[in-house]
Amino acid sequence: MNFSFKRSLIAATIVTSAMVASQVTIADVPESKDPIKIAVNEWTGQHLSANITAELLKKKGYNVELVTAGGLSQLTAIAQGEIHLNPELWDNSITDAYTNAVASGDILVRGSLGLKPQEGWIYPKYMKEKCPGLPNYQALYDCAQSFANAETYPKGRLITYPADWGTRSKDVVASIDLPFVAVAGGSEGAMVAELKSALAAKEPILMMFWQPHWLFAEIDVDWVTWNPIEGECVEETQNRNTACGFAQANAVKIESKMVAQKWPEASELFKKIKISNEEQNRMILAVDQKKRPLSEVVDEWMIQNKSKWSEWVK
């Protein structure tokens, strides 16, 4: 074989290899044109997490569909592969359907989203005058009437999460025999409106709530405190003297087992996604209070964080 012919053959081989590599890349990502379905739950923070996840998957070429899903019903759907991802599941608002699906491998936990959640009961600072002993939960036994309304008197009124989010506050009230009536909030928006109304009129209010949330950048409230314990706090098995309140929440990313099988590169990208409290608080404030379109706020996050997510997409 002469040198000129050999060089031409090598060049042709390189070109052919490059073409094959290009074809493999195009063929492999996305591995399927079927839509990856992302759960959208009831609160703005999760809407943002879901939409950011959708945009990141689109950057890698995937077809994406956002699906409105209830907090509890989505777990069965994800386990069965009818919905594929949820980037922000608060793992202390779960049921046996979730733990069983994780144990069986039908739902895979893909790490923390990066948030540092807190959940519990909040109240206005002016309620300390009417209920000495706050923030300790034991004070609520002696001043339940201070939190009552016409429907609950003489028991206090506690506004809990919407019914579809579970019964954790109701379980705590029952297990520690607290003289309060747990009343489910209609939605996140309805809860915020009731809290603002109470604050404006300096009326009593005790409410289950969470952070991150824009609320804590604008409203000055306190949290009920509980007994510290070692290990996990189990809400339905507490008693008055040793109550620990609520289990420590983690905002985890979950996916159906079929994602890693059908869209392995999407699954790898999903593992890398991180959003901080500060980022989410600013975005929630922009959407809920400044009334900016959610899509605009998500696009802004994508622009501001391009150097970060570019590495994830690689």
TrEMBL record:
Key words of the record: Signal
The protein, known as: ABC transporter substrate-binding protein
Taxonomic superkingdom: Bacteria
Phylogenetic lineage: Bacteria, Pseudomonadati, Pseudomonadota, Alphaproteobacteria, Rhodospirillales
CDD domains cross-referenced by the UniProt entry: PBP2_BCP_2
InterPro entries: ABC_Gly_betaine_transp_sub-bd
One Pfam family here: OpuAC
Entry-linked Gene3D superfamilies: Glycine betaine-binding periplasmic protein, domain 2, Periplasmic binding protein-like II
Domain ABC-type glycine betaine transport system substrate-binding: 34-303
Source organism of the structure: Kiloniella antarctica
Signal peptide: 1-27
